[in-house]
Amino acid sequence: MNDRNGPVVGILPAAGRGVRLGEPLPKAFVELDGRTMLDRSVEAMFASAVVDRVVIVAPPELAATPAARLVGEAFADRVSVVAGGAERADSVRAGLSAASGARFVLVHDAARALTPADLFVRVVDALRAGSDAVIPVLPVVDTVKSVDAEGAVTGTPDRSTLRAVQTPQGFDVALLERANRDAADATDDAGLVERSGQRVTTVAGDPLAFKITTPLDLVLARAVLASGVRTEKEM
Ligand code: CTP
Ligand code: MG
After folding, report:
1. 18 CA to middle of ligand 1, Å?
2. What are its E.C. numbers (predicted)?
């Protein structure tokens, strides 16, 4: 038996407050065209047909909510809900503890609510083909500078070597558990894996997998939906 054929569990960190978005609800519960970001993210994961189960990491006060009230009825029996922690890495740790039986995990921000299903497929294909840590990336469009504490420029990295990082990030489950164990905080799970000296590979990201962080991002997400651009590509 191929050891890379085992189950894939999606971990959906959705426990953030969305301070930068500034809406009254925790961000994952903000609606886009009548459906929450959380519900849209879960649907995209299952639409990919490469995810067996999903663990939603919810704000603690919502963690006792039955899955069927958080996501579409059709998915509820494949979804569990756990309470998140103070920092994103704490929430990922809580999700990992509920991902028993997983061979691979896909950690995916609920805030990337328009992520097309085929991006999950690309990441899982890379895991099945032999990678233990895989991240979707896009070329960087702006020139990027490094600066010192006063804001004075210290360097201009060659843009052709830089990539902007998205989710879903895919991992061998034991590798992410080890890397996450001592993490204080990380905006990017792969960063923890890199620090442990492991090789992290990349697949092509998708502009629709942008993270909804600020009010401008919310305007963009709603405009994308209103425009009829396909967020679910034909599988
Ligand atoms: N997240 C989480 N637990 C935390 C912090 C963040 O599960 N303690 C999740 C968020 O719900 C989001 C993803 O991690 O889906 C990416 O984080 P971010 O975009 O920073 O969301 P928030 O932390 O909610 O936003 P802000 O930083 O503006 O408060
Ligand atoms: Mg945050």
Report:
1. 6
2. 2.7.7.60
Q: Which ligand is nearest to the CA of 16?
A: 1
Q: Contact, 211 vs 221, CB < 8 A? A: no
pLDDT tens for each residue of the chain, 235 residues long: 578 999 999 999 999 999 999 999 999 999 999 999 999 999 999 999 999 999 999 999 999 999 999 998 889 999 999 999 999 999 999 999 999 999 999 999 999 999 999 999 999 999 999 999 999 999 999 999 999 999 999 999 999 999 999 999 999 999 999 999 877 667 789 999 998 889 999 999 999 999 999 999 999 999 999 998 876 654 4
- C-alpha 168: how far from its chain's center? 4
Please report which ligand is nearest the Cα atom of 212.
Answer: 1
79/16 Cα distance (integer angstroms): 19
- Using CA positions, which residue lies closest to atom 8 of ligand 1? 87
| Within a domain: 126 | yes
Whole-number Å distance, alpha carbon 154 to ligand 1 midpoint, is 30
Q: Residue 82 sits in which domain range?
A: 8-227
- Does 188 map to a domain? yes
Is 1 contained in some domain?
Answer: no
For position 138, which CATH number holds? 3.90.550.10
pTM: 0.95
**Among 171, 213, 229, residue whose Cα is nearest residue 37:** 213
- 14 assigned to some structural domain: yes
